[in-house]
Amino acid sequence: MTITLRDPEVTADVVAAHGITTDEYEQICTLLGRDPNLTELGVFSLMWSEHCGYKHSRARLADLPSSGPRVLQGPGENAGAIDIGDGLAIVFKMESHNHPSAVEPYQGAATGVGGILRDVFTMGARPIALLNSLRFGELDDPHVRYLFRHVVAGIGDYGNCVGVPTVGGEVVFDNAYRGNPLVNAMCVGLLAQDDLTRGFASGPGNAVYVLGASTGRDGIHGASLLASAELGDDTAESRPTVQVGDPFTEKLLLEATLELIGSGVVIGIQDMGAAGLTSSSSEMATRAGTGIELDISLVPRREPAMSAYEVLLSESQERMLVVADPHRESELMTIADKWDLPCTRIGSVTDDGVWRVFEGHDEVCAIPVEALTEAVPKYVREVEPPAYLAPLHAWSPDPGWLDDIDPLTALTTLIAAPSLANKRWVFEQYDHHVRTATVIGPGADAALLAIKGTKRGLALTIDGNGRYVYCDPYRGGALAVAEAARNLTAVGATPLAITDCLNFGNPEKDDIYYQFVEALRGVGDACRALDTPVVSGNVSFYNQSSAGAVYPTPTIGMIGLLQDIEKRVPPGRAAAGDRLLLVGADGAHLGGSSLLKEVLGQVTGRPPAVDFEAERTSAKAIRALNDAGLIGSCRDIGDGGLAVAAAELMFGLGADLGVELETSDDSDLHGVLFGEDSARYLVTVTDQDLVKATQLLAELEVMHRTCGRVVASAAYDIVGVGLVDRGTLEDLWRNAIPNAMQLSESNR
Amino acid sequence: MSKVSIGVVRFPGTNCDQDVFDAVADIELARPVWLWHKETNLQDVKGVVLAGGFSYGDYLRAGAIARFSPIMEEVIRFASDGGPVLGICNGFQILTEAELLPGALMRNNRLTFVCRPQRLRVEARDTPFTRRYAHRQIVSFPVAHAEGSFAADASVIERLEDEGRVVFRYVDERGGNGPDANPNGSMNDIAGVINKVGNVLGLMPHPDRAMHEMVGSADGRGIFEGLVETAA
What we know:
The structure holds 2 protein chains of 2 kinds. By secondary structure, chain A is α+β, with helices and mostly antiparallel strands. Chain A is 35% helix and 23% strand. In chain A, strands 8-10-7-11-9-12-13 form a 7-stranded mixed β-sheet. Chain A is globular, with a radius of gyration of 26 Å. Chain B is of the alpha/beta class. Chain B has a single domain, classed as Rossmann fold (3-Layer(aba) Sandwich). Chain B has 5 helices and 11 strands. In chain B, the strands form 2 sheets. A 9-stranded mixed β-sheet of chain B has the order 2-1-3-4-11-10-9-6-7, with helices on both faces.
């Protein structure tokens, strides 16, 4: 049934329509000592939804490492924060907007960016970078092209207007995401540590204000019904649950918020994101151990005749909840006026631990604050590995099975696969230069920003591989972290911390729950081994449609630091005659690889195991080589193996240069070229530095071999196998996505 | 010698204000001064820059609302009195809306936002803003806009060309006018134009984002140096 917002009766049907189980309803009655009214039921349905309450994930998330000497703020706040020295901190977080983007791609993606920006500036940090991680079905499907085009436009238009550069990201195409795209957005902010502000409703008697946009009927039940259930075939009917973004108001809200925090007027502040006024007010009171009293008749509305239920549950965008000393109200109002933003007092902080809502003189809700937050049910269960894994893991191909696959044909197929092809079509739509700190922008292994006023550089990346996680959840989770660390290492940075976005199917199903638990264990082990605590994150369940669940896809947003930005490893710093050096062992592992997927159309085998010790050693070797000034350019070896890394390296070089790649003797040719074994990098060194570099690597006991050279002819040559003209290869790589999108011009 | 004050206008939604402020501050003899859109006092600045962004959200039409803000009346008077005014990106759009410059900036022909490094040819160096460049020098400034396609009546274009008022033209990586030269469909590959008197320049590419080699190019310094020299 649909929920009639004015239905005064709380019947069993109404409870079920709110996504609340019979057991949960009984718990609610116990907590209240009575039956909830309809408004209270709506409030519980949001706060106890998976999206807000993390009921299937919270207990497991507690196992992730979240502390360390640099951690200033771990999970549980609007965003995490880490110390980068000089009294500065970086605040960052990633969040999903998958279902809204499936239903309404432009607004869904745009408001995803808006929400993550607010999570960062509400901490007092100025947003300095955005990144995103996107998954779609294959581009031969017109609906996928529609989603892709509008998601990219929505992300671009929002971030571009607010003036925060989008400096990196990833886009992967696989039919596993056809019915349910993934749109994960990450924001990174910078602030002086003294300005770090938290979402605390402290001090009974302090006043509560709503700052920013007025409240409408958009996004009602976005968190509960849209984000916390599977996508049905009637997604179009869910459009009213998607919010509508206004990046111009966001820009004003950003400036006003930072000015308010700078002025010292703010005691606590929080974005009204998922579950709007309800979640922001109850979470702020929980953190401070206080109560809160609101009169929703005072909340500015953009639509007439809204009920208490609607005002409390609205997810209208670009609103903040501010707690301030009422004696400083005029200072607050002066700053709000300066930025032309409405600011209205709607309540007070109390000391009775109750979340109390009035509509004029009528009390419409009275719920113990902790019943909405701490009392959310936590579901933990033990499940067996899904049946599909055993055959995948038993996969072992016959000897000579790849003899018919010509390496150069395989390379051109890989390079032209949209997941591996050049993403210029995407990132040219994002302003990646604004704020003038972007030293390495999109398209490299990682982005690099200058931290103005210091010598430091901040390296940023997002990585994840759902196919790996599907084939082996534990290994896949660990590999996502390892790959992100390699991305940062390749530009010369040292990894510091991560934020994660955990995209899975319906956790009530055992197979999915197993994937979630094991992937999380992999992420946690890798973070412990690589010394990158998890300081913030987001869980997105129910990513499935009638076509089934998406690949389990944890995406990892990692930040790293470069003490001296002059020591960065830029793309394309190599000349003819320079040597190619493989740092790490030769590849051999093809299970779960891009070669299997893109060339043979198979998703099978196990992804490579992660050897944490090897990851640490090879990363240390890259930093040592760089410190000694021996590295020209560097690529980490990931999707598509050495062959693809060499091609990507070549595309960054002057147009008249090419590469010669030497495979090692007596080994399996396809494994060496396309194996995706971890802990490996491809670097260039000058001919005269080669001896020094190999000596250093030998001292560090890191496996390595020279594997070719940069040459003065524009070709890609696999010695002893054959060569392909660079222009041909580069055209395939550059044009794969534009060509696929061109086909769709007629059905935009 | 006292520093030359250059005003940087902030409209609600301007987002390259800090970038322009920093660019001006980078010029030895210059002192940047914020000018708030609600003010009517130019604080004795000797030059004015309208920075990029999305003033008033670009709602209605890029630059269409900003031109009616209180500060713009003063900027228009300043320009009429011969003061140097530079409009970058959204600033260029505002200058055309305010009719300080001819033509209009239309939606890009590719229909999407475009952000990329862009080569330009300096077509006129007899302006206060381009005197630091060599004749027909090729420079690199990034572009980042959705509505940057310069359009005007054929007669206006002809006059701009005849009078040498096309100051910057888009070129490709090799400095030619190949198919990749023009990022947005601008008529005659026009990237920037100056008014008849020669004190008001508008351009879509961002010299403010080309102040240091580390971010890709330092070619933009010349424009700010020229502006400060003229204003002094």
